[in-house]
Amino acid sequence: MTIRDKAAAAGERLTEILATGFYAGLLPRKLTGFRKFTGAGFLGTVVAVLLTPLLPEGAAGYALFLSFFCFFAVKVSNAASRQYGTHDDPRIVIDEIAGYWIATAFMERTIFSLTTAFILFRILDTLKPWPIKRLEKSLPAGLGIVFDDALAGAEANILTRLIMTMWPMWR
Q: I need a surface site. Which of 49, 96, 131, 163 has the fewest CB within 10 A?
Protein backbone atom coordinates (compact mmCIF):
# COMPACT_ATOMS: atom_id res chain seq x y z
CA MET A 1 0.00 0.00 0.00
CA THR A 2 1.43 3.36 -1.03
CA ILE A 3 1.50 6.47 1.12
CA ARG A 4 -1.21 7.97 -1.09
CA ASP A 5 -3.43 4.88 -0.50
CA LYS A 6 -2.82 5.07 3.24
CA ALA A 7 -3.71 8.78 3.28
CA ALA A 8 -6.89 8.12 1.30
CA ALA A 9 -7.87 5.30 3.67
CA ALA A 10 -7.21 7.54 6.68
CA GLY A 11 -9.32 10.30 5.12
CA GLU A 12 -12.19 7.88 4.53
CA ARG A 13 -11.93 6.62 8.11
CA LEU A 14 -11.96 10.19 9.49
CA THR A 15 -14.97 11.02 7.30
CA GLU A 16 -16.79 7.97 8.65
CA ILE A 17 -15.98 8.82 12.29
CA LEU A 18 -17.23 12.40 11.90
CA ALA A 19 -20.22 11.70 9.65
CA THR A 20 -21.51 8.90 11.87
CA GLY A 21 -21.19 10.88 15.10
CA PHE A 22 -18.26 8.83 16.41
CA TYR A 23 -19.84 5.64 14.99
CA ALA A 24 -23.26 6.20 16.64
CA GLY A 25 -24.82 6.15 13.16
CA LEU A 26 -23.44 2.67 12.53
CA LEU A 27 -24.94 1.00 15.59
CA PRO A 28 -28.57 0.73 14.42
CA ARG A 29 -27.50 -0.72 11.08
CA LYS A 30 -25.60 -3.45 12.91
CA LEU A 31 -28.70 -4.23 14.99
CA THR A 32 -31.54 -3.82 12.48
CA GLY A 33 -30.06 -4.20 9.01
CA PHE A 34 -30.09 -1.45 6.38
CA ARG A 35 -33.38 0.47 6.40
CA LYS A 36 -34.20 4.16 6.21
CA PHE A 37 -35.68 4.46 9.72
CA THR A 38 -33.00 2.69 11.71
CA GLY A 39 -32.89 4.99 14.72
CA ALA A 40 -29.51 6.38 13.69
CA GLY A 41 -30.91 9.93 13.65
CA PHE A 42 -32.12 9.46 17.22
CA LEU A 43 -28.66 8.29 18.30
CA GLY A 44 -27.03 11.16 16.41
CA THR A 45 -29.23 13.58 18.34
CA VAL A 46 -28.25 11.85 21.61
CA VAL A 47 -24.59 12.46 20.66
CA ALA A 48 -25.47 16.15 20.18
CA VAL A 49 -27.10 16.27 23.63
CA LEU A 50 -24.04 14.69 25.22
CA LEU A 51 -21.72 17.21 23.52
CA THR A 52 -23.91 20.25 24.34
CA PRO A 53 -22.12 21.08 27.64
CA LEU A 54 -18.89 21.54 25.64
CA LEU A 55 -20.38 24.26 23.39
CA PRO A 56 -19.63 27.97 23.81
CA GLU A 57 -21.86 29.81 26.28
CA GLY A 58 -21.93 33.33 24.84
CA ALA A 59 -24.19 34.27 21.93
CA ALA A 60 -21.37 35.52 19.67
CA GLY A 61 -19.16 32.51 20.32
CA TYR A 62 -22.06 30.13 19.82
CA ALA A 63 -23.09 31.82 16.55
CA LEU A 64 -19.54 31.65 15.23
CA PHE A 65 -19.11 28.03 16.31
CA LEU A 66 -22.48 27.00 14.84
CA SER A 67 -21.71 28.71 11.52
CA PHE A 68 -18.39 26.91 11.22
CA PHE A 69 -19.87 23.60 12.35
CA CYS A 70 -22.69 23.76 9.78
CA PHE A 71 -20.16 24.51 7.01
CA PHE A 72 -18.01 21.61 8.27
CA ALA A 73 -21.07 19.30 8.47
CA VAL A 74 -21.93 20.07 4.82
CA LYS A 75 -18.38 19.17 3.75
CA VAL A 76 -18.33 15.96 5.81
CA SER A 77 -21.83 14.95 4.66
CA ASN A 78 -20.86 15.53 1.06
CA ALA A 79 -17.74 13.36 1.41
CA ALA A 80 -19.66 10.64 3.27
CA SER A 81 -22.39 10.64 0.61
CA ARG A 82 -19.78 10.02 -2.06
CA GLN A 83 -18.11 7.38 0.11
CA TYR A 84 -21.39 5.51 0.82
CA GLY A 85 -22.68 6.01 -2.72
CA THR A 86 -26.10 7.32 -1.61
CA HIS A 87 -27.70 10.67 -0.83
CA ASP A 88 -28.45 11.15 2.88
CA ASP A 89 -27.44 7.67 3.96
CA PRO A 90 -28.98 6.87 7.39
CA ARG A 91 -25.49 6.31 8.81
CA ILE A 92 -24.73 10.04 8.35
CA VAL A 93 -25.78 11.74 11.60
CA ILE A 94 -23.59 14.85 11.68
CA ASP A 95 -26.63 16.66 10.27
CA GLU A 96 -28.69 15.66 13.33
CA ILE A 97 -25.94 17.04 15.57
CA ALA A 98 -26.02 20.38 13.75
CA GLY A 99 -29.83 20.43 13.73
CA TYR A 100 -30.13 19.80 17.47
CA TRP A 101 -27.55 22.47 18.25
CA ILE A 102 -29.64 24.90 16.19
CA ALA A 103 -32.75 23.75 18.09
CA THR A 104 -31.08 24.77 21.37
CA ALA A 105 -29.30 27.89 20.09
CA PHE A 106 -29.36 31.08 22.13
CA MET A 107 -31.56 29.76 24.92
CA GLU A 108 -30.89 28.92 28.51
CA ARG A 109 -29.73 25.31 28.85
CA THR A 110 -32.23 23.85 31.27
CA ILE A 111 -33.50 20.28 31.43
CA PHE A 112 -36.87 21.52 30.17
CA SER A 113 -35.51 23.50 27.20
CA LEU A 114 -33.04 20.79 26.15
CA THR A 115 -35.65 18.02 26.44
CA THR A 116 -38.38 20.01 24.68
CA ALA A 117 -35.99 20.94 21.86
CA PHE A 118 -34.92 17.28 21.58
CA ILE A 119 -38.50 16.00 21.28
CA LEU A 120 -39.61 18.70 18.84
CA PHE A 121 -36.47 18.35 16.73
CA ARG A 122 -36.88 14.57 16.48
CA ILE A 123 -40.56 14.95 15.48
CA LEU A 124 -39.81 17.60 12.85
CA ASP A 125 -36.75 15.79 11.51
CA THR A 126 -38.67 12.51 11.21
CA LEU A 127 -41.92 13.85 9.74
CA LYS A 128 -40.23 16.53 7.60
CA PRO A 129 -43.24 18.82 7.15
CA TRP A 130 -43.18 21.39 4.36
CA PRO A 131 -40.79 23.05 3.56
CA ILE A 132 -38.25 20.73 5.21
CA LYS A 133 -38.76 17.81 2.82
CA ARG A 134 -38.61 20.09 -0.20
CA LEU A 135 -35.38 21.65 1.04
CA GLU A 136 -33.79 18.22 1.47
CA LYS A 137 -34.66 17.23 -2.10
CA SER A 138 -33.92 20.54 -3.82
CA LEU A 139 -30.42 21.18 -2.49
CA PRO A 140 -27.45 19.16 -3.73
CA ALA A 141 -25.57 16.55 -1.68
CA GLY A 142 -24.19 17.87 1.63
CA LEU A 143 -26.29 21.05 1.53
CA GLY A 144 -29.54 19.08 1.30
CA ILE A 145 -28.40 16.61 3.96
CA VAL A 146 -27.55 19.31 6.51
CA PHE A 147 -30.00 22.11 5.73
CA ASP A 148 -33.19 20.09 6.12
CA ASP A 149 -32.01 19.32 9.67
CA ALA A 150 -30.99 22.94 10.16
CA LEU A 151 -34.51 24.04 9.23
CA ALA A 152 -36.04 21.39 11.51
CA GLY A 153 -33.74 22.71 14.26
CA ALA A 154 -34.79 26.32 13.64
CA GLU A 155 -38.47 25.33 13.77
CA ALA A 156 -37.89 23.32 16.96
CA ASN A 157 -36.10 26.33 18.46
CA ILE A 158 -39.04 28.63 17.73
CA LEU A 159 -41.56 26.11 19.09
CA THR A 160 -39.46 25.51 22.22
CA ARG A 161 -39.33 29.25 22.88
CA LEU A 162 -43.09 29.48 22.37
CA ILE A 163 -43.70 26.65 24.86
CA MET A 164 -41.31 28.23 27.38
CA THR A 165 -43.18 31.53 27.02
CA MET A 166 -46.57 29.87 27.48
CA TRP A 167 -45.45 27.90 30.54
CA PRO A 168 -42.77 30.03 32.25
CA MET A 169 -42.85 27.90 35.41
CA TRP A 170 -41.08 25.12 33.44
CA ARG A 171 -38.16 27.32 32.44
A: 131
How many whole angstroms separate alpha carbon 139 and alpha carbon 6?
32
Radius of gyration (C-alpha) of the chain in whole angstroms:
16
Cα–Cα distance for residue pair 119/123, rounded to 1 Å: 6
Distance (Å, rounded) from C-alpha 83 to C-alpha 18?
A: 13
Angle (deg, nearest 10), helices 40-51 and 111-127: 150
Would you list the domain boundaries of the chain? 3-16+23-170
What pTM does this model have? 0.91
| 132 phi and psi angles, rounded to 5 deg | -60, -50
- Which residues, other chains included, contact 171 with Cβ-Cβ below 8 Å and sequence gap of 6+? 108, 110, 112, 113, 164
- How does residue 171 score in pLDDT terms, banded at 50, 70 and 90? low
Query: Per-residue pLDDT tens for 63-91?
Result: 999 999 999 999 999 999 999 988 778 89
E strand or H helix at 166: helix 141-166
Query: CB–CB of 70/13 below 8 Å?
Result: no
Whole-number average pLDDT of the chain: 90
